[in-house]
Write a structure and sequence with these properties.
The chain has 332 residues and is an alpha/beta fold. It has helices at residues 7-15, 36-41, 60-72, 102-116, 138-147, 171-179, 193-203, 220-230, 239-273, 280-287, 293-310, 321-331; strands at 26-27, 52-56, 77-82, 123-130, 152-159, 184-187, 207-209. The protein has a seven-stranded parallel beta sheet. Strand 4 (123-130), helix 5 and strand 5 form a beta-alpha-beta unit. The radius of gyration is 20 Å and the shape is globular. It starts with 6 loop residues before the first helix and ends with a helix. The structure holds flavin mononucleotide. Flavin mononucleotide (FMN) binds at residues 1-4, 24-25, 54, 81, 83-84, 126, 156, 187-190, 210-213.
């Protein structure tokens, strides 16, 4: 997720159970490759593999060049973005807009696969269910991508038209899974271990991909892993554990962004970690006025120490047993 899954956050998610994490999308525009934003996005220092970098654009040749550029900087997997609904990715409609232009989408896939193959780097695809409700073409597009050499497909269960509105649907993801031989990853609105299980059952997908629910909750991955392998819930982390992870995350964040940008961009992460904690709102008002790393960390540590006096563990992610049973029932 652009603006969220930077290297420090991916590293933390991997430590806490994520089997795989993809970079924020990186532009394929050559004039932007050397920008500070892109160079931070292409930074993989100390990141455990596999290092998967997502590229976005509309020109096959530029996308091929972007694949090589990122492979030179450590990418071990190249992911093509056909899921982003934002206008003007790379100055033109890119991302999910490619789902409306299958010929161009496949030219891009061919070019990126050809550029990555000499390095032995696999290419994957992130897509939506289609352009709009009446044009859900995920199955033919995924099949064509598979024939062109794509080795894994992740599908977000919404159309481009939906943006992030409405609910993700999983029937189209199930159809993609049934049609393809390569691994298929199901994505969209997975917010709890129960929902992960229900989506895996309903789609038969090989894996689930978690986006927004991991914001401020990087431990969601180990909770889902635990539930899938044992059928029981792992207790949510102790407040003192979450404090340690958050403080480590902050230090890592500052080391990538520097103090000025780092303090400001860390605020959203802190807000996500604390969103369900009592007293978070007035605390964030004060936190947002602090402008140096030391004061920011100190304030977070004090808040977490006070929280620890009122609760042992961070709020739980698990749905009630009843909701969970209903969920599995309705989706299978
Ligand atoms: C802030 C934000 C940034 C995102 N950036 C990207 C991106 O760069 N590449 C991509 O493939 N998807 C991106 N997405 C989409 C997510 O990867 C995911 O498909 C979508 O949020 C649905 O999954 P979720 O319900 O688990 O969040 C982004 C989503 C959000 C909310």
């Amino acid at each position: 997720m652009a603006g969220v899954t930077d290297r420090p956050f991916r590293q933390l998610c991997k430590r806490l159970g994520a089997g795989y994490a993809v970079s924020e999308m990186v532009t394929s525009r050559p004039d932007l490759l050397k920008s500070l934003k892109t160079s931070r996005r292409a930074n993989h220092d100390g990141e455990p593999g596999p290092i998967a970098v997502q590229i976005a654009g509309t020109e096959p040749q530029m996308m091929a060049d972007a694949a090589r550029y990122n492979i030179d900087r450590g990418a071990q997997i190249i992911d093509i973005n056909m899921g982003c609904p934002a206008k003007k990715v790379c100055n033109k409609w890119a991302g999910s807009a490619l789902m409306q232009d299958a010929a161009l989408a496949l030219n891009i896939v061919d070019a990126v696969v050809a550029a990555s193959a000499p390095y032995g780097v696999p290419v994957t695809l992130k897509m939506r269910t289609g352009w709009c409700q009446s044009h859900k073409n995920a199955v033919p597009l995924a099949l064509a991508a598979e024939s062109a050499g794509v080795q894994m497909v992740a599908v977000h269960g919404r159309t481009r038209e939906q943006g992030y509105r409405g609910e993700a649907e999983y029937d189209t993801i199930a159809a993609v899974k049934a049609a393809l031989k390569i691994p298929v990853v199901a994505n969209g609105d997975i917010t709890s271990p129960e929902k992960a299980l229900a989506v895996l059952k309903a789609t038969q997908a090989d894996a689930v991909m978690i986006g927004r629910a991991a914001q401020g909750r990087p431990w969601i991955f180990r909770e889902i892993n635990h539930f899938l392998s044992t059928g029981t819930h792992l207790a949510s982390p102790l407040v003192c554990e979450a404090k340690r992870w958050l403080v480590e995350h902050l230090h890592d964040h500052y080391s990538l962004y520097g103090e000025f940008t780092g303090v400001r961009s860390a605020r959203k992460h802190i807000g996500w970690y604390l969103r369900d904690a009592p007293g978070a709102e007035p605390f964030m008002d004060v936190l947002n006025t602090l402008e140096n790393c030391e004061l920011q960390v100190l304030a977070v540590e004090n808040f977490m120490d006070e929280l620890n006096q009122t609760m042992d563990r961070m709020p739980s992610l698990q749905a009630s047993a009843e909701v969970a049973a209903e969920l599995v029932e309705t989706m299978v």
